[in-house]
Amino acid sequence: MAVEEGAPGWVERIRRSSGPVRFHQYTRYTIYSFALFEGVALLGWTVAQSKGPAAWAAAVLGVLFTAHTACHLLLSRAGLRYYLGTEERPVRLAAAYVALTVTGIAAVLALIGAGELSAPRALPTVVWLLMFLAGPLPLVLSAGRSTALVVALLAASLLTARALGAAGGGLAVAVAGTVAGAVIFGVSYRCSAWTMRVVNELEAARETQARLAVAEERLRFGRDLHDVLGRNLSVIALKSELAVQLAQRGSPSAVDQMTEVQRIARESQREMREVVRGYREADLHTELVGARGVLRAAGIDCRIEDSGSGELAEPLQSALGWVVREGTTNVLRHADAGRCAVRLRAAGPVAELVMENDGVPGSAAATGGGSGLDGLRERLAALGGTLTGERRGDSTFRLTARVPARAPARQNGGEDGKGER
Q1: For the whole model, what pTM was predicted?
Q2: Which residues are CB-neighbours of 259 under 8 A, at least 6 positions away?
Q3: Mean residue pLDDT across the chain
Q4: Does 284-416 carry CATH code 3.40.1280.10?
Q5: Which of 56, 188, 187, 43 is nearest to 116 (CA)?
C-alpha cells in the first residue's frame, strides 16, 4: 500500500518540477544508465564464464566488475557536480576508477595466463573496460587532457590486444572499437554536462532579467516621485525657513509665506496621488504588455490578443487591469506553466477578458477561490461584471472576467475615490 501511495507522489513531483529541473533529471539518469549498462554487460559476460571450469575465476571478476560499476556511478555523479561548479574535483574517486580498470584488465590477463580463460573470449571485456574508462573521466579533466586520454587508450588497447594474441583484422577491430567507443562516451558525457551548465546559466539569466525588471520599475517609481516632490519640498523648506525668520522679526509677511507653504503642500499631495494612482490604474494595454514581459522572463510563452483595450472607459480598464495583474501573479505562484494566453474582446455590449494557462497541479482548486480573486469579484461586481475561474481536464486553468462595456459612474466607495476626497 505504501508503494502504491508513494509512486503517484513521486510522479507528481517530477511533473510539477520546472523545465530545467526535469532536464537535469533526464540528463543525469541517462548518464547513470551508461554505468548500469556497463555493469550488465560485464556481469553478463562473467555469468557466461561460470559455465566452465573457471567458475571461481568468474566470481573474482564479478566482484571486481561490480566495484568498477559502482565506482563508475559515483564518479559520474561527482564529475557532474564538479563540472557544474557545485563540488571540488573528485581526484581520489577518479584515481580509484582508473585503478579498478587496470586491476580488472590485469586480472583478466592473469586468468588467461593461468589457463582459466581463453584470450579470444576475454578480448571484448578488455575493450569494454577501456571504452567505458573514457566516459566519466572527461568530466573531471580538461579538454586537452581528455584528448590525451583517448590517445593513451589507443596505445593501451593496442598493447592489450597484442598481449591477447589478436592480429590482423581482429586487432584492428579491437583498437577501432576501443577508440570509437571512448570518443562516443567521452563526448556524450561532456556534452551532456555542458548542456546542463548552459541550462543553469540561462535560468540564472532569466532570474536576473526578472529582478532587473523589478529594479527598473522601482527606479522609475522613485524617479517620478523625485521629479514630482523634489522641487516642491525644496520650496517648502525654503519658505518655511523664511517664515520662521519673518515671525521672529514680528513681520506679518510670515503668514503669507506659511499660506504659500500650505498651498504647495496641498499641490504636492495632489501630484503624489496622481503618480500613485497612475501605478494603481495603469491603462489596460500597459498591463497586458507588462504581463507578457514578466511571464516571458519566467520562461512562459505568453500570447496576447488585445482587441479594443483603448476603447474602454477608465474604470473598466482599471478593473480589468487588476484581473491581469492577479492572474499573472497566480500563474507565477501556483502553476508550472509553459504557456499562457490572454484574450481581450471589447466589441459589443460586454467586454470579456480570458486568461488561460497550463501546468495546473492536480490538487488545485477548481474554482480558484483565493482571496485575491474574491477581491477582484468585488471590484467587477461594482461595475456589474463577473469573474469565474475553472480548472479544465487538460491541466489548464481559465480565468474569465466579463463586464458591461458601458460602465456605471465611479463608485464613491472606490479606493481611488477615497484618496481624492
Answers
A1: 0.55
A2: none
A3: 78
A4: no
A5: 56
